[in-house]
Amino acid sequence: MTKNVRVRFAPSPTGPLHIGGVRTALFNYLFAKKHNGTFILRIEDTDQNRYVEGAENYIVNALNWCGIPFDEGVNKNEKFGPYRQSERKHIYKEYADKLIASGNAYYAFDTAENLDFHRKDHEAKGKTFIYNWHNRLKLNNSLSLSAEEVKAKLDAGDDYVIRFKSPQNETLHLTDIIRGNIKIDTNILDDKVLFKSDGMPTYHLANIVDDHLMEISHVIRGEEWLPSLALHFQLYKALGWDVPEFAHLPLILKPTGKGKLSKRDGDKLGFPVFPLQWTDPKTNDISRGYKEDGYFAEATINFLAFLGWNPGTEQEIFNIQELIEAFDLDRVNKAGARFDPDKIKWFNHHYMQQQSNKTLADAFKNLKPELAEIDVNYIAMAINLIKERATFVTDFWDLTHFFFNAPTSYDEKASKKAIKEGTAELMTELIAIINANTDFTVEALQTEIKGWITNNEIGFGKIMMPLRLALVGALQGPDVFDIMYMIGKNETVKRIENLIKS
Q1: What pLDDT digit, counting tens, does each position of 209-232 carry?
Q2: Dihedral, CA atoms, 34, 36, 12, 112, nearest 10 degrees?
Q3: β-pairing verdict for 193-196 and 161-164
Q4: Cα distance between residue 172 and residue 36, in whole Å
């Protein structure tokens, strides 16, 4: 690739960043890094009515947590700043005026009431109202009015919008990296609003102008923007600019595979749809985040990379550098990608095993105040014995609590299975074996206790089940000899004595 690759992620600060937005940012980031390019964050806040306090900071924090930080943007390497559209509104009018001067756009003075009348009139006739070539000369705009009338309206301060003048009887030949060649009949396109009389551009104009001025080489965005491709292509041509390459990513679908993934799906099925926890500033409602739910950023990114892309191999586990090297827009699918909550858990389980026991112990200790006085190295030893069974750090307590606290009760079903006639006598003998053993290591305990069981033809279940019950309170957990070694001889004997007394 010879051109200087510059891509942008351009979210609106109208709330928390959806996981679908993170996937779009990720694909932009991977593409930029693959081609030694620049990943830009631009905040598209032209719709001030929907602006939500804190959303911009949330977006930046989410990208940083995911490990896909932007190279250029708000307060960072502002080569083409400002990067908030609300701070660039003085720029857009110039280009709207150029489009009017070239005959590619026009002033429209239609009132909301008048447009509503036409829509309802069309609906009554079973038609759809489209503002374009077939009716614009009958409506209230600078194409149907005289130059004097237009000037008078503008001088009087009448409300207006600037609309793009879609051509008639033309066929647009467009190219999308993912979807291939696309043909569009211009007769079906409406004359989109580009600029409003309040001095703010619509998304369409601001987006094109900013992409051009920021020298964006590739526009990688969601499938929902595919219907806008024809307009954006025409705007580039009308302004005499080179058109960037476009790639429209497939939708992320509900776990059922039907329909676009939404927050409601996460709420209903019990998984987050946001990277970080979000507190709504108006309602104080809290939405769950992948970080707070115990997912590793690496697992989240690895999972998202496979939503719509595949490497063409059997490999599923990729670190970020491997993703950069393998990523190719040609391997992005057209079809929507089903969101599988179990699959991201699978990824998280894998990344859990890659973490050092000390790292996990620190995270676990911070999570559980009752572990504050316990040596982190001891916690790490306990985690080493159980982490293969864990998916999240929050799973650790259920899997390790007996390393820190003696059982205060015993599982009823397990007790019926483990405790038989003669169990108390056998456990008393076991205590004597343990007390007589001066070498309290895992290997020595295995040798002594298994040897005693075998030599006396006792049957392993008669010893091992009540022993596990005494140590854990249930018939679960890692190897009993590992537990005994961890909690020590005195605590082991004490727990067996408690079982005998119960």
Answers
A1: 999 999 999 999 999 999 999 999
A2: -100
A3: antiparallel
A4: 32
- pLDDT of residue 48 exceeding 80, the answer is no
Per-residue pLDDT tens over the stretch 358-386: 999 999 999 999 999 999 999 999 999 99
If you ran DSSP here, which 8-state letter would residue 73 be given?
Answer: B
CATH number of 1-71+250-354: 3.40.50.620
Residue located via tokens 């026991």: 357
Architecture of domain 89-196: Alpha-Beta Complex (3.90)
Confidence class of residue 93 from pLDDT cuts 50, 70 and 90? very high
| Beta pairing class for 218-222 and 245-249 | parallel
CATH code 3.40.50.620 region(s) in the chain: 1-71+250-354
In the block, residue with structure tokens 């609309």? 163
The DSSP H or E segment spanning 221 is strand 218-222
Give the tokens for residue 282. 């108006």
The pTM of this model reads 0.91
What was the pLDDT predicted at 115?
94
Q: In angstroms, rounded to a whole number, what is the distance separating the alpha carbons of residues 71 and 78?
A: 10
Task: Give span(s): CATH 1.10.10.350, the chain.
Answer: 412-501
| Catalytic machinery residues | 263
pLDDT average, residue stretch 239-265:
95
Measured between alpha carbons, how far is 32 from 419 in angstroms, rounded to an integer? Answer: 64
CATH number of the 412-501 domain: 1.10.10.350
Consult the annotation and say whether 345 binds a ligand.
Answer: no
